[in-house]
Amino acid sequence: MPTVQDIRQMAGDEPITMVTAYDAVTATLVEEAGVDIALIGDSMGNAVLGYDDTLPVTVDEVASRTGAVARGTDDTLVVADMPFLSFGTDLQTSVENCGRMVKEEGANAVKIESGDHTIELTERLSDLGIPVVAHVGLTPQSVNQTGYTRQGSDPEQAREIARLAREHEKAGAFACILEHIPANLAAQITDDLDIPTIGIGAGSECDGQVLVVNDILGLSERTPPFAKAFGNVREEMRSAIDDYVTAVEDGQFPAEEHSHVAEELDELY
Ligand SMILES: Nc1nc(=O)c2c([nH]1)NC[C@@H]1CN(c3ccc(C(=O)N[C@@H](CCC(=O)O)C(=O)O)cc3)CN21
Ligand SMILES: CC(C)C(=O)C(=O)O
Ligand SMILES: [Mg+2]
């Protein structure tokens, strides 16, 4: 399994791949594809739980899915994405929530949407042996403040994002997600940091890339402008379920090969 140290050393080397997974089956496929890091994203809020955004996602929900992904993988670094208000309120509760992912669910690290209020937490977690991935730029848990628009487009905002990334590196983060920021800003942050940057909507100059697996598969109804579908799984699923319904309605399923007969029951009545 790649360790956090292996990932750290991939900065400036071969591109790091990170994909979300929310269940053991998907996690197994993600691992078979050779993905370096599986992220149990709070994007499960819209990707699997039917919410409009990530804010309602609970610690229990992320914990349950983290356990599933950890059981589905051997060789992939498992990172739990800490949901809205599971951290940042007080240090002790934050550490306990993060610790639960590692201690009870098999995560190797946690990811935290970063702000000035997460610098001390990042330091504490790193000291305690809980590796942290930072996350700057568009942080979807702040949707009520920023919406989902691109971030860091003016120099002042851009410098602020770069500063936050640097502060979290200093606090001990081993990687930093850059979301929905200009490619030329992401390139400069990648240059500036020693730890690897992992981009989503942040251009090609990051040390790695991450996407939501539903978006990769072509399963999402709506996707952010920076995502790309590499498959058409939504259509595949729809057509398989359609075919099943038609077969049942037409009496074509189940066929003899899907049924069995116990001879001694022939004349029960
Ligand atoms: N399936 C999925 N993929 C994701 O990448 C993702 C999630 N879900 N859920 C959590 C967040 C939300 N993300 C989003 C969602 C929408 C836009 C988006 O549509 N941005 C447009 C419109 C912005 C606006 O509303 O003003 C843009 O042009 O930036 C971007 C990122 C990224 N994350
Ligand atoms: C897209 C990644 C970075 C994320 O935070 C998520 O899936 O929740
Ligand atoms: Mg997230």
From TrEMBL:
Binds 1 Mg(2+) ion per subunit. Pathway: Cofactor biosynthesis; (R)-pantothenate biosynthesis; (R)-pantoate from 3-methyl-2-oxobutanoate: step 1/2; Cofactor biosynthesis; coenzyme A biosynthesis. Keywords: Coenzyme A biosynthesis, Cytoplasm, Magnesium, Metal-binding, Methyltransferase, Transferase. Pfam families: Pantoate_transf. Its cofactor is Mg(2+). Catalyzes the reversible reaction in which hydroxymethyl group from 5,10-methylenetetrahydrofolate is transferred onto alpha-ketoisovalerate to form ketopantoate. Belongs to the PanB family. This is 3-methyl-2-oxobutanoate hydroxymethyltransferase. It comes from Halovenus carboxidivorans. The gene is panB.
